[in-house]
Please model this.
Amino acid sequence: MLEVQNLTRRFGERTVLHDVSFSVPANGMTGFVGANGAGKTTTMRIIMGVLKAHGGQVNFNGSPIADGDRARFGYMPEERGLYPKQQVLDQLQYLGQLHGMSRLDARSGALDLLDRFGIADRTKDKLESLSLGNQQRVQVAASLMHHPTALILDEPFSGLDPIAVDAMSSLLAERAATGVPILFSSHQLDLIDQLCDNLVVLADGKIVASGSAGELRDRAKSTHVLVTPPDAGWLREQPEVTVHDVAGPRAVVEFASEEAAQRILRTAIVRGSVTEFAPQRPSLAEIYREVIR
Ligand code: ATP
Model:
């Protein structure tokens, strides 16, 4: 497990991280979200030791993180970092060997990853001759080469087509299942919804929500859909009910308590019919929008 504790960072007079704390558990993937400039890249750079924090610390498996730990992490920085003029396979193999893999293991590992990403036919090409999306696939492969003990990925999905997104999602899920903590930033809330077991939301350098998807959903406001023909308008007059939307017989409402929900259900049945009464679990995307507001 990776823990970020009370990180503070300034650039000149501006404080861009204010007492940022969150954890990246070893079970599942953690999505790191927030508007442009919120401080995600800065946090990831501090985790990787590329930038120094002005306060706070990072722990890995219960101890302050050391350079030796970071050397075994997989990191995909925002500025990427492979050599445009080098061949794809040579480059990945070299990186694997830098991390202590044998030439043969590095080569077969690289071929395997390139195959998983659907670009096994581009192994001899220079990186710069690939499309941007395919270069991105190679960048991701580079971060996975040496079977890292944790993954810190800055917008790994940006620019990938849906097939590559699927390939990458399943590769990351496999690594997560082996107990590797994964932190990745993204602006694609639909992907965060699909992939993440944990969410960290940053706004203007402050944590506004963090935790497991289940905890965050339990804490978020939950609504019900109630369909009660012919017209659900009467719900507006009811105490302990906040009506978010009514369209004919269909209403989206928030109840003040479970008792209120049951009372309204009974009232609706007495008044006519109920064709749907369903709690709606908020998606992570909805939770994000709620906390960022
Ligand atoms: P994005 O989603 O756009 O990538 P982000 O959440 O990753 O944004 P950061 O790149 O961490 O945000 O930037 C946080 C703030 O820190 C921004 O206001 C940025 O301008 C500032 N910042 C980052 N690096 C530097 C630097 N080297 N010098 C000065 N300010 C910086």
About this structure: Residues 159 and 243 are 39 Å apart (CA to CA). The domain at 2-213 is CATH 3.40.50.300 (Rossmann fold). The chain has a mean pLDDT of 92.
